[in-house]
Amino acid sequence: MTEALIVRPLRCGHCGGELPVMGQLVTFRCPACLRYWVIAHDALEPITVHRAVPENAGESTSSASDHIYLPFWVVDVDGAGLRREIDGAANTFPATSEISYLSERLASLGVLRVYIPAFRSLNTYAYLKVGRLLTRIQPSFALERSEGSGRTILCALLAEQAVALIDFIFFATLPGSIQSNGDLLEQVHLKPMRPPCLVEFPFVERGASLVSIIGGFWISGRLVEGVESLVE
Asked: Same domain for 115 and 154?
C-alpha cells in the first residue's frame, strides 16, 4: 500500500512566519524573526548558527555590514588521537621528514579543526580550496550567535554530509609526498570529537574576489553561488 503524500507549509516554529522556498539549500532563515531552521528527516528543526569574529578587532578594516557571510561546518578532531593513528600507520613505511613534521604539528595543536564549506558552488573545487585553506591555517577567532542579519549565504550541506568529507579536506592539506601514499592514507580516518558546528565566516568583496577577514586569504567570488545577487 502506498503511503499518502503529506505536504506541510514551511513556517517558522517560533513566530509562525512563512519561510521562503530556497531550492537545494537545507537551512532556512525566517525573514521576520531571523531564526534559523534546518531540514531534518520530514520536519524542520531549529538550529543554532554561530558567526566567527576576529579576536583582534584590528584584523578588519571594514564594517560588519560590508561583510558577506559564508557558512562552514566546523568539525573538531582529537589531534593527539589522530597523531597516534598516523604514527601507527607510518610505522609500516620508511620514515620521512614530512610525516615527522605532521606528527609534531598535531601534537602541538591538541584539537584539529576541519572546515567544510557549506555553500553552493558551481565549481566543486571551491570545497577543496576553501576548506583546505582554513584547515591548514587553523585560525583563531571568537564565536557569537548569529542573528541572521547582514549579507548571508545559507547552508546547502547537512551535518552528516559534512562529516563524510573531513578525511578528504584534511588529506588535501598534506604535502604531496604523503597524499601520494595511498596505502598510508587508507589506514587513517578522522573521528569527530563532538557534533559539527555551523559557523558563518566573514568575507569582503574586492573586485571579483572574496577576501577572508579571518585568515587573510582570497577566493574567486564566482566559486560561491548566490554571491552575485548580494553584491549587485
From this structure: yes
